[in-house]
Amino acid sequence: MTNNPVHSIKRTVSEACHVAASVRCLLLSTIVCLFFIPSSYAQKSKSIAPDSSLLLLLPQAVRQSAPSREIIDSLKALLPLAQDTARVRVLNRLAWLYRTVDSQQALGFGQQGLKLAQEIRFYDGVAQSANYLGIIYRNRGDFANAITILYEAKYTAEQYGLRQELGYAYNNIGEIHNLQENYPEALENMEKARTIFEQLGDKMGTAYNELRAGEVYRDQKNYTQALEHFNKSLDLRRQLRDTTQILAALLRIAQVYQIEGRYDGVLDLLHTIVDIGRHKKDGMLETHALTTIARIYLEQKQYAQAIEFAEQGLRPAQVLEAKQFIENAASVLYRASAALGNYEQAYKYQQVYIDMEVQLRNQEVQRTIANSRIKYEIDKQQLQLSQEQEQKRLIAYSAATVSALLLVIAVMAVRNARRQKSINALLQETNEELLRHEILLDEQAREVKLANSHLDATNEKLQASNAMLTELNKEKNELLGIVSHDLKNPLNNIMGLSAMMENGLLYEFSSEDYIQFAKQIYASADRMAVFIKKLLDINAIESGKITLNILALDIASITRMMMQEYQARAEAKTITLRYAGADTAIALADETMFRQVLDNLLSNAVKYSPHGRSVWVTVQPKNDHLVNLPMRTKKEVTGSGIQDEAADGDFVASSVVLEVRDEGQGLSQQDKRLLFGKFARLSARPTGGEGSTGLGLSIVKKLVEAMNGRVWCESELGKGATFIVELPRSES
Fold it and tell me: CA-CA distance, 462 to 455, in Å (whole number)?
């Protein structure tokens, strides 16, 4: 993941929207240095003759580039100013730069960046953080954590179409396989990475890929191909003017020359790279070059110099906790010490070497890496199986819902057909009667008045029949409109999602997507189920199939319990439910009907209230209130033993009043006229995307009146609404 430090700093600065003057100066000087790299540098041959001076390949601008510490300090100054995605990028950049200075701090910044990116769902940042952490773990010799976090980077990049980060993940995974001497899989992953980088036209990624591929061939002792890849990486780095990676490519070319015993110019280049690494405070570059110098002196049997440079290389390697370089330096130290007869020192360094060898190569690490990969594949298969099972369950649930819907529609169609048949029979009977009267007109002139009276009665029947037919036709049209809007849309949603899942598009969506699909299907099915239930309730009320069980109920207690049941739904919209009524209020009511009334009123209050508001509920006994009820005895209404008749249906009685007040949109005068009708469509709209059937308040009115009560609404547009239910009060 070797992004150009200049470009990365510029990008981070633009996101933070604040740059200190010192950072601007640093950027300007760095850009000037990089762009003055001689053009002849880009024209060097890809193959280097053994007797040429490798030092000539190192431009003066590279040797004088700004130390990494200055860039780190500039980024740390930006960190308090950066927020969200900009902060993730600064943290990731710090992790990347610290990998060569202090691996522990690099881990800290990388883990902070990963955590923040996951919290704000910045998936590009998640993949980048995971890739960087994988490289940091690799440098520390922790291959188990490296491979685990790199597979997370790969999975995130695949899920969210992050092609560049996917290429880096493949490349980094391939490098871990190379370090484990699994060369075929290493090259396979790097080939995937190369394909992605070439498709994207990403020279930086391609250069990084060429460098790592060269390392695989070098470790396989195929030095010709290794040099070919290293030189391709070098050429691309020249074009990009990436100082650090120019040094990295040259260092690896020097290592191949060292392995082949071609030392001309190699030591000069390596000493220069050491100086630059120290100047840039790049511990990784420094220890890499120093251990390579030490190996050259060891091969030339200059043991004192080998020990000197190996000890110099060991110090930054230990600071960075870079186990592979500690192992390399310790290997040179114990061999050179033994050659000089210093066996005590040779034994000490041999123990360091063996300890690092065990940590880097032991079977437990190998097993951990293998288990990580196996677990990834198993989790992937289990996810697929779970998605298939969920798909089948949802399809079955959808089929059951559709069947229930079709059954309800069929029942209503039969009912309408019977009504239509009855009306047609009545019309036919009336027509026959009219015909008989017309025949009798000539024969019974004396009975004209009587015939006219019969005719008037018949006309009244016709008008009543026509009115009934008109009402039924209107109800049928309203029902069809509701079916089209409230049932067809959610049904299409269920069928569309189910078809998409049924067609096997399992790998194009994440588990979060399938959870969201399931929620959408459930919400659509629930919406249809609510509508069907309300249709059945209306049908039961209108057909007189509801049996009342009027009892003395403490509706205050019932109200508080139902408010607790609505608490979660209200909290989802940050709505506060507040009860401000009496502790006890005994009314004459049917418990099931009262619960259904209160359920509809609470549901509407939450549904039409904006987020962060309150819904107020009160239940209070109310004495001496004039009510208008159908003619019946006080005993029927109050439960008392008095048998007096109420004149004109009006009398003074005690009652219990339930009020549900919201802080929603309120009702216009037109809304109030339509409020309690079936299939009412009002100007107010639910505030959380909820659905509305237009049947709830119609059910409320019919149920309240069935319990000898009344219901009405007090509201002004824009000032909320208060629904009031008044029920007879029990005197017992």
Answer: 10
The H-assigned helical ranges of 543-652 are 555-565, 567-571, 591-608, 634-638
Enumerate residues 6+ apart whose C-beta is below 8 A from 319.
Answer: 102, 283
**494 DSSP β-pair partners:** none
What does R_g of the chain's alpha carbons equal in angstroms?
42
Task: Fill in the DSSP letter of residue 622.
Answer: E
Distance CA 324, CA 180 (A): 12
Bridge partners of 588, per DSSP, are: 552
CA distance 152 to 335: 41
Using one digit for the tens of pLDDT, what is the confidence trace for 104-116?
999 999 999 999 9
Residue whose structure tokens are 């239509």:
420
Q: Where is average pLDDT lowest: 85-99, 293-307, 509-523, 548-562?
A: 509-523
272/292 Cα distance (integer angstroms): 13
DSSP state of 719: S
Q: Which amino acid is at 479?
A: L
Rounded Cα distance, 243 and 272, in Å = 14
pTM of the model: 0.44
Joined together, the tokens standing for residue 297 give: 């002196």
Quote helix, strand, coil % in the chain, to nearest 5.
Answer: 70, 10, 20
Q: Which of 318, 248, 254, 230 is nearest to 285 (CA)?
A: 248
- Return phi, psi of residue 715, to 5°: -160, 150
20 token code pair: 């200190």
Task: Encode pLDDT of 437-485 as tens digits.
Answer: 667 766 766 665 665 666 567 667 767 766 666 655 555 555 555 555 5
Q: What is the pLDDT of residues 511-569, one digit of tens each?
A: 776 676 776 677 667 656 665 765 666 666 666 667 778 999 999 999 999 999 889 88
